Amino acid sequence: MLAKRAAPNRAHGAANRVRIIGGQYRRRLLDFPDADGLRPTPDRVRETLFNWLGQDLPGWSCLDLFAGSGALGFEAASRGAARVVMIERDARAVRALEANRTLLEGNQPAACHVDILRADALAWLANNRETFELIFIDPPFDSGLAATVLLDLGAHLKPGGHVYIEQALPVVAPSGLVLQRSGRAGRSHFALLIKE
After folding, report:
1. Average pLDDT over residues 39-64
2. Which of 11-15, 28-32, 110-114, 156-160 has the least mean pLDDT?
3. Under a CB-based contact definition with an 8 Å cutoff, are residues 66 and 137 in contact?
4. What does the pLDDT average to over 173-180?
């Protein structure tokens, strides 16, 4: 029996498009491929997250694990982050991320350096020691990967660094992280945590 597919993600009536909601790329539409488990963070949830963070991320370094559509990483780039690293293992999603980076940069010099790496998020974390001010964790829905990744993030966060997590279950902060804010949108639970 075939699994029922979720309705296509839409922005402005177009399937598989997501809109950047703030910053220098505000209102730009980004295309992303149709893939199992790929559900971009909705506009309303991204707006809530960046309200919690104070809207702008001047000079921040950000990591977007399980980048998917790139909605979170490109939103951070739009809001003044100095560097965004996007990790995605699906080849079609990586090609779409690269095309969207080119679209956003256009002919203007990029204010933010966006690195897009085709890799498994867990393997990348195990082999990398870089630290970030903000890490986004939004793996394929119902995968259960978010809680696993959250346990090992302390070494990748700068002091006072933040973690945004989105998953099917309520978020529980592991040792070393404190839950600052949380919310729910439909079946998704989301939260912002800070390193102690």
Report:
1. 88
2. 11-15
3. yes
4. 92
Q: Which amino acid is at 151?
A: L
CATH top-level class of 10-195: alpha beta
- Contact yes or no for 74/105 (Cβ under 8 A): no
Torsion 165-162-41-49 (CA) sign: positive
What's the token pair of residue 134?
Answer: 């903000």
Q: Where are the domains of the chain?
A: 10-195
Instruction: Identify each DSSP E strand in the chain by its residue range.
Output: 10-11, 14-15, 17-19, 29-31, 61-65, 83-88, 113-118, 132-137, 157-167, 177-185, 188-195
Categorize the per-residue pLDDT at 146 as very low, low, confident or very high, splitting at 50, 70 and 90. confident
- pLDDT, tens digit, 9 for 90 and up, residues 101-123: 988 887 455 566 899 999 999 99
